[in-house]
Amino acid sequence: DAKTTQPPSMDCAEGRAANLPCNHSTISGNEYVYWYRQIHSQGPQYIIHGLKNNETNEMASLIITEDRKSSTLILPHATLRDTAVYYCIVSPQTGANNLFFGTGTRLTVIP
Amino acid sequence: KAGVTQTPRYLIKTRGQQVTLSCSPISGHRSVSWYQQTPGQGLQFLFEYFSETQRNKGNFPGRFSGRQFSNSRSEMNVSTLELGDSALYLCATTTGLAGETQYFGPGTRLLVL
User: A53 touching B, CB under 8 A?
Assistant: First the structure.
């Protein structure tokens, strides 16, 4: 069920933009791209999701390529509190709530 | 709105015992999904309940079961505990309608000795 591929780890300097990539080359037409993050041993926190168009909210921006085979989560000004494991998930919005979490990217924000 | 609450937050059991965990969803949310997180297997989907019915099920043995009450609160039960059941158990809730985002609780950390 490995629908997404993410780098295992990344570092980012505090105050700089963190760009987290995700490959989802087998994404189906009805599948959305979701991003969650998990700060050590807490429950995953929803960040953002999108289908085709780029999305932005108060936490982050999501850039989805035109062919939808990859996406990038952007944290515009990373802080130490953004240190977490970030999960990219593809899922149809059918109401069935069984998200498949891969291994994610461990982002470390460095002072 | 209050968030998703899970009780207890921490639990220690011994092999062979059984355990019941509880999840109270956000007000208005009728779907509750359960996940198990271990260092080796990561976050894995257990099952989902909607309107007191199991709507979806992951690949876990029958020792793992759940139920949902009329107020949408859900419980999951693990019988005949094994050492490998030590994990963080998370529940996530939504309204249950298509397109709704899942919101996770803080989890229950279970240690089986």
Answer: no
A29's CB contacts (< 8 A; 6+ apart) are none
The confidence score (pLDDT) of residue A93 equals: 64
Dist. CA A61–CA A53, nearest whole Å: 11
Paired tokens of A8 = 């295992």
* Rounded-to-integer distance, Cα B37 and Cα B113, Å: 17
Count the Cβ atoms, other than its own, within 10 Å of residue A90. Answer: 21
pLDDT of residue A15: 97
β-pair type (A70-75, A105-110): unpaired
Rounded CA separation B5/B95 (Å):
16
**Contact flag A41-B109 (C-beta cutoff 8 Å):** yes
Strand order, beta sheet including A84-92: A9-13, A105-110, A84-92, A31-38, A45-50
SS3 at position A11: strand
| pLDDT tens, residue by residue, B77-92 | 999 999 999 999 999 9
Q: How far away is chain B from the Cα of A87, in angstroms, using its nearest Cα?
A: 10
Q: Which residues of A touch B98 (CB under 8 A)?
A: 93-95
pLDDT along chain A (111 residues), means of 10: 86 97 91 92 91 93 95 97 95 70 94 95
Q: Rounded to an integer, what is the distance from CA A9 to the centroid of its chain?
A: 13
Structure-token match 């997404």, residue found: A4
